[in-house]
Amino acid sequence: MDLKVIFIVVCLSSMAIISTDAGIPKCCIRTREIHPKRIMKMERWERQYSTGACDIDALVVYIKGLRTPLCVHPKWEKRLKKLLSAMKTLRQNNLGKY
Question: I want to staple 28 with a disulfide (CB 3.0 to 4.6 A). Which of 58, 80, 83, 87 is the partner?
């Protein structure tokens, strides 16, 4: 009976760890410049703050066709906001033509 209880506890614990990614955040370690061609393939971006679990401030940029996101310096935030809004309006205008 004790072996069954231990087995159930181990299974439940492993399921909890797997489902939450063990609470380990995915942080950028360093930032780099982003090539303009890659910016045009940007799907979305998120802000990483150094006040939480991560050590540096960064922008995590998700690029279409890349498996891992790019870590970009926060100085790019205004440019990315402008570009993302421009890309959205361009897509809306192109959808309206068809």
Answer: 58
For 76, residues 6+ apart whose C-beta sits below 8 A from its C-beta are 34, 59
> What end-to-end distance do the CA atoms of the chain give, in Å?
67
DSSP class per residue in 68-85 = SPEEE-GGGHHHHHHHHH
User: Lowest-confidence range among 2-6, 74-78, 84-88?
Assistant: 84-88
DSSP helix/strand/coil, 66? coil
- pTM exceeding 0.85: no
Each residue of 58-71: pLDDT tens digit?
Answer: 999 998 888 889 99
Cβ atoms of residues 48 and 54 within 8 Å:
yes
Amino acid at 15: M
